[in-house]
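Lab meeting prep.
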Amino acid sequence: TLFRSSGMAWRAGGFVVVPLNEYTVGLKIGVAYDQSIAKNSGYVCRDYSDCVNAKVRFSQSKIDIPLLFSFKGPRSSFSFDIGTELDVPIKDEFRVDLEGSGVSKLDMIDKENREMLDWNIVFGFALKANQYVGMDFRFNMGLSDMYDVSQNSNLKMFKLDDLSSA
């Protein structure tokens, strides 16, 4: 399978910080909307002699709910965050256009190919511009196997058991 990939992802949300002591430790609780789209095109071979041109589009929307501990120095505008995040899928669609076979769509949530909740470990840092505005930089590591495509041979052909939108 040889594919050229392109895509776009964005995330928007907010959080509140609940101080656990006067200066250095806080609890960040938030919610974010996450949207990603990935497009691929290339040749897929069902066996050694049957190769076709394929266009693939994967789109995903989800709600992310992070719960983080935030650590900082008493007078610092820099903080370090670590915690967990729960992801709830809203839309998870895989669309394939195989040359000569037409377009097929698969809703990964309805077909029960996807877990209904995903867990991540999150770590990162934040910079505060003032008391109300700042920027977070976060890195997520998934703990869940998002997809189970063992029952669907068409999806196995695209190696979706390793699929991730991040």
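Slide two material, second protein:
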Amino acid sequence: MAENELRMLLSAAGVAAELAERLAAYGTLLLDANRRVNLTGAKDPAALVPHLLDALTLAGDVGDSLADVGSGGGLPGIPLALATGARVALIEPIAKKAAFLERALKELGIVGEVVAERAEIAGRDERRRERFASATARAVATAPTVAELTVPFLRVGGRALLQRAAMGTAERRALEDAAPMLGAAVIEERSLGGERRIVVLEKRQPTETRFPRRNGVPEKRPLCL
């Protein structure tokens, strides 16, 4: 029943039929697993659909590969992989959440991997550092923190896609100052209506080896704030 409702709601929102079907299958898996593991605040199809649609706002910016930092229940990484066909790395250190993500990739036939590590560790691994065309993070941390955790995964020319709500002047300036330290630049801030926005960073040169800093430091001491 949940899958049918998800499919109908997504179709009504203008999502193409094939993608709506695949997103509905993912949403059904997520809602079912959410009864046992805290993966999302959404408890029913009507509450989940806005999160799926929000993820799709990034689809036009995703390249051939995507690192999704702090993936949790797979948002926005899994909807973006379904929408674009990008190879995805879902970076999630909590074991129960990582186990769900492994199951979701397998059942949905998504090309990618689950990395059960903190971003500060995974971002230093040569198998993943500077390997991706795109990076996302649905984090509640400051923009400079999210930049530090995403940019190291990008190859030169890649883009970090930061979904943000309101950004004060101090946070915006800190992000603009922090980006060059990471080898990147803020190239766009796109309004989605209200306070919602997408901030795009482009990788201009390799990230210095000192970034990301050790576990917890990017959040406790955001760059330039």
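Talking points for slide two:
The chain has a mean pLDDT of 96.
The first strand starts at residue 65 and ends at 69.
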